[in-house]
Design brief:
Strand content: under 5%
Radius of gyration: 26 Å
CATH topology: c-terminal domain of poly(a) binding protein
Order of helices and strands: HHHHH
Shape: rod-shaped
Structural class: mainly alpha
CATH superfamily: Ribosomal protein L20, C-terminal domain
Largest sheet: none
Number of strands: 0
Length: 120
């Protein structure tokens, strides 16, 4: 079998790993073996946290909607049920944004939800 000389490809691979580890603390940004471990660990965190970010934002939106709904005399579950019964098809992201930026519009949504709960 013929001999394969790896020096160029090996250096290129190491340089790429060290580039990914740029900004890491201590040896993790300077030494290949430590950098490789740190990059692998960071990739696992990155993969996990892309999923967790979705959870975290949904929790934030629900908290904001709940706070605004309670200022208008409704619980979160009553508000969401009333919104659904009134046929308003806004997701939690938009409702949370309205709750934070435009309290008057949110109050009108809360009134519509209250009417839908009373009527149905």
């Amino acid at each position: 079998m013929t001999r394969v000389k790896r020096s160029i490809h090996a250096r290129k691979k190491r340089r790429a790993t060290l580039a990914l580890a740029k900004g890491y603390r201590g040896d993790a940004s300077r030494h290949y073996r430590t950098a490789k471990e740190a990059v692998l660990k960071a990739d696992r965190y990155r993969y996990r946290d892309r999923r967790n970010r979705k959870r975290d934002f949904r929790r934030l939106w629900i908290t904001r909607i709940n706070a605004a709904a309670r200022q208008n005399g409704l619980s979160y579950s009553q508000f969401m049920h009333g919104i659904q019964a009134a046929g308003i098809e806004l997701d939690r992201k938009v409702l949370a944004d309205i709750a934070v930026r435009d309290a008057d519009t949110f109050r009108r949504f809360a009134d519509r939800a209250r009417e839908a709960l009373a009527g149905g």
